[in-house]
Specification:
Elements lengths: L3 E3 L14 E2 L1 H16 L2 H8 L18 E2 L4 E8 L2 E9 L18 E3 L17 E6 L2 E7 L2 E9 L5 E11 L6 E10 L3 H5 L5 E2 L7 H5 L6 H10 L6 E6 L1
Parallel strand pairs: 2-5, 5-11, 6-11
Antiparallel strand pairs: 1-3, 1-8, 4-5, 4-7, 7-10, 8-9, 9-13, 10-11, 11-12
């Protein structure tokens, strides 16, 4: 599982191995969603967004450059849509297009297990259809140390930016008040340095030559994509740092 990651700065985005355009419409939509949230009451926000309870914090938090992203935060990601690679704000926790209720983070919709992509009804409709990548500079996990929970930051050795495969979707409220893109990060068996800390999952990272291949979602069937991710993850060595 990857519960948090660090957003790269704008300069780092130039390191991405694919060409893309900034989706001005998607970024404008997020700003409009934020303005609507400020003007709406908590009961209205709960109803329109299909929340279990009234919100205690903003539902449209955008992480800035070098900031950490937690589930339900928005961060920049690359998605393939209409034959073009777009830089869009993506909520880190997938919300399916047809969902009436926004499920809580305890359902871990921000991470999709590679071995369950073909079985889970949330992921199966998206693989082979709506692929993207999340660029980030490090990620964070909770681990057990001396009987207590501790945070560990994993930073790649000799690598400024990593690109991780994601699945994405677009959700819009019934009345059209708000709409946003969201995603889930695909995880697999842990890298050795991650496993050594006691954690059992870590994100997959693709080699630069395979990023565009993954983005062209309709090139292969869902089972073929699962095999692709199993066979083309880039071996990355990490430094692990305990976070106080």
């Amino acid at each position: 599982m990857c519960y948090s990651f660090a957003v790269p700065n704008d300069k780092s985005l130039s390191l991405l191995p694919v060409e893309f355009k900034k989706d001005a419409r998607a970024w404008k939509q997020l700003r409009l969603d934020q303005k609507w949230e400020v003007s709406a009451g908590k009961a209205e926000i709960q109803y329109v967004l299909g929340l279990k309870g009234q919100p205690r914090v903003s539902q449209f938090r955008l992480a800035g450059a070098s900031e950490r992203v937690y589930p339900r935060y928005f961060a920049p990601g690359i998605v393939r849509d209409g034959g073009q690679n777009w830089l869009r704000p993506l909520r880190y926790s997938l919300r399916s297009a047809n969902s009436a209720v926004d499920l809580s983070t305890r359902y871990s919709l921000y991470n999709a297990r590679l071995d369950r992509l073909l079985d889970a009804k949330t992921w199966r409709p998206l693989i082979g259809r709506q692929h993207g990548i999340l660029p980030f500079s490090s990620f964070f996990e909770w681990v057990e140390r001396k009987g207590r929970k501790a945070q560990v930051q994993f930073t790649p050795v000799r690598k400024d930016l990593m690109w991780a495969p994601i699945l994405w979707d677009y959700w819009e409220s019934v009345g059209g008040e708000v709409g946003y893109y969201s995603c889930t990060l695909i995880t697999d068996e842990p890298a050795p340095e991650v496993e050594a800390t006691g954690h059992d999952r870590s994100p997959i990272f693709l080699g630069a030559e395979y990023v565009q291949v993954w983005l062209d979602a309709k090139s292969y069937t869902a089972p073929e994509w699962q095999n692709f991710l199993m066979g083309h993850r880039e071996p990355v060595k990490y430094q692990a740092f305990a976070i106080a």
